[in-house]
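Lecture notes, unit on protein representations.

Consider one protein chain, 461 amino acids long.
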Amino acid sequence: MSSGLDLEKLKWVFRSRPDILTAIQQAADTPARTALFNEIADFVHQRLALADVQNEPAAKRRRVDADQPPSQPHANGHPVTGSWSAVSRGASSAGSSADVTVSEPVLLEIKDISVVVPQRKKYDICFTQSCLFAKAQGATGPAPGLVYPWIEIEHAFFLPVPDKSQTQYNYILLPRDSYLPTSKASGVSSDRQASLEPLVFTVPAAAPKAGSIKGTAAKTAEAFAESYSCLFHWALTTSLRAAGNESFQLISSDPRVFHSLVKQPHRPNEKAVHVKAFRGSKEGFLFFLPTGILWGFKKPLVFLPLDKIAAVSYTNVLRTTFNLVIELDSDVTAGGNATDKEIEFGMIDQEDYQVINENYVQRHGLADRSMAEQRRAKRQLAENLRKSTKAESSGEPSQNDGLTELERAAREAEQRLQDEEDELEEDYDPGSDGDSDGEGSSEDDEGTYDEEGCNEEELGE
């Protein structure tokens, strides 16, 4: 029954232990055991290949074919078919980048792609069976920190770039534990860098330039090269599913599901699928997606999956803007560290309140805790503090001084009498008694006036 074994992969994995390989061939006497040994070989191979990529060994090892994934539709309606194994089986390395010092051949290389995060620079994006990596033009290996194993990618998105006159798109790849801000209480900065940061790169709404696609899969890729987005959709979907994530989906925005009511002056005929928002002092964009809420594209990116959101609240509601506070479940962690339980996005346009509340919060059944007792207490505390600060700046007694209303009134009356006595002492002139027939006039009864005609008793009050 050993004929179903992936002997090529098993020989590579156990190349230093032929005794184990022989034992596996003898033990693979049922289809279930054969499938199990093949899965073990796949897993060990991916781990060894990843270690070799990160250590950049000098010698290349033989290629290993990937399993053929099922055909799936492209997110934009284009078909996603084919597999790495169809183009790499028996192929020579002539079509790959011969100078790339990795353990596997480059199946697909797409040149001159603008990377936005974690650093702004143009790179060549390379696909292998076990990872995606970016390399500088003319380099022989991956750029530091830009090797992304397929097994580490947890979320992937395809979104239009806001505030650009020409239509462009961002691909966002989020490794595990890279997208939730860690709480400062855990001893780690909330904006800490994960061991593997999110990757964001931009492509135009155009077809790839001639000669910009290389690798052993280049010939197959040409069938999907009608646009950069079609090409990357096929390559990412095929790679991630071949790596074991058979249910992988590349999430795109959809204006039919959510779009802003604020017009885009640079693209007036196109509905914006984002809203502008601040996180602290950083301005960015909120995308309300089928799987969660994404804030980008400034570092650090934040993605809040729907299944981790406990509730939302609307705060600081003003005439033109409001803030959105998202509360996460208490058990949410990132890489073993506690995360911020409330994340606030500020200065959102009031025009977008209704679409956010009705088209997203209510549609997904998210709890609205805007009127919760705790939040109302916070609002009352902020209002009292504002009044107290205003009173102190104007010389009035603070309303948060711990006095009762009666005690406060008595203190105010005492202060008023003291001010009047001080003013009478300053205005008193012994030589002015009886020097005018106007003494005791009705004007004097109303109080003394200074040279500008202002009632000094009123000023003293």
